Amino acid sequence: ENLFDIAKLRNCGLKGRLSTNEQINYLRQWGKWMHAQLQVIATSKKDGFYCPSCLNHCENMGLTSMPVLGGVTIREALRNWFFDLSMAGRNSVDRCGGLPCTAVTDKRQVCRVLADTLSEDGTGFPAHHVCDLSDASRKELFQV
Asked: Of the candidates 105, 23, 122, 107, which has an alpha carbon nearest to the alpha carbon of residue 71?
């Protein structure tokens, strides 16, 4: 799951462009809360997490579209956890800062960060949700 899952943020009342100090402070508090929750999960011997610092919901949940954290892909982390092969990637979170900030190194990786939320026309978040796109649009977006 992304630290700043935009669907959860919207369900909790965040609306419009992320441009006011109040909205940015809300994001910072959300990030602190998420990190605190992940610390609790990290104490589990059976559970784990893989959380880039992105403002995405499901756009980057694929095995090739998720950013790489600590040199471990989500595919490797999932395999290591499921087959109990290694702790590598088991509790992965990008601690790049207090706001959405994960960098991507491959054009297939998707991670919308704070600067990406302001569209050229100033409307903020995309009007549609990527999960609602047609299969053709999804393929184009993810270059499948």
From this structure: 105
